[in-house]
Amino acid sequence: MNAAIGDLPLERSIVLVGLMGSGKSAIGRRLAARIGMDFVDADSEIEEAAGLSINDIFEVHGEAAFRDGERRVIARLLSKPAHILATGGGAFMDPETRKTVKQRGISIWMRAEFDVLLRRVSRRDNRPLLKGDNKEEILRRLIEERYPVYGEADITVQSQDGPHEETVSEVIAAIKQFLENESRDGNRAASPNAAN
Question: Is position 1 within any domain?
Fold first, then answer.
């Protein structure tokens, strides 16, 4: 599917990364609709490939097996025509996946503050890494471990409580800036941040 941001062609997949509850799927679906690309949720693809839910994969096979499957599924998805891809919270932590994303996509970190994430993840009980008594403590640890790595993404957009369409507009503006910088520099540009 041929998509463009302004007059700039979008020939690589847009890969949304960030912690659970950061809005990757919600924003990804709306972004795909807005710019005319397909939307793919990596977790759904993993579940389909395994014939099990994410929770069941964790329980039956363990996190290491899940991460291995996740790495393979994301590499397969990024070998397809450009689309919007929402990844699971741990996907970008894998060095091989980060390298694949860098080569074949444009990564966007949907960055959210602790309070926003906690509110969002508390609404559901389907997060294998948050099974336990202290969601707050686990979430703080994940932020500490993962935010420095998410910071390697090409673009950062602040995910806030508010209309999804506003965040989608910020994502589109950030992609446009990234593509303009890349076009001007003739190579992959320095990471712009749209963190308002």
Answer: no
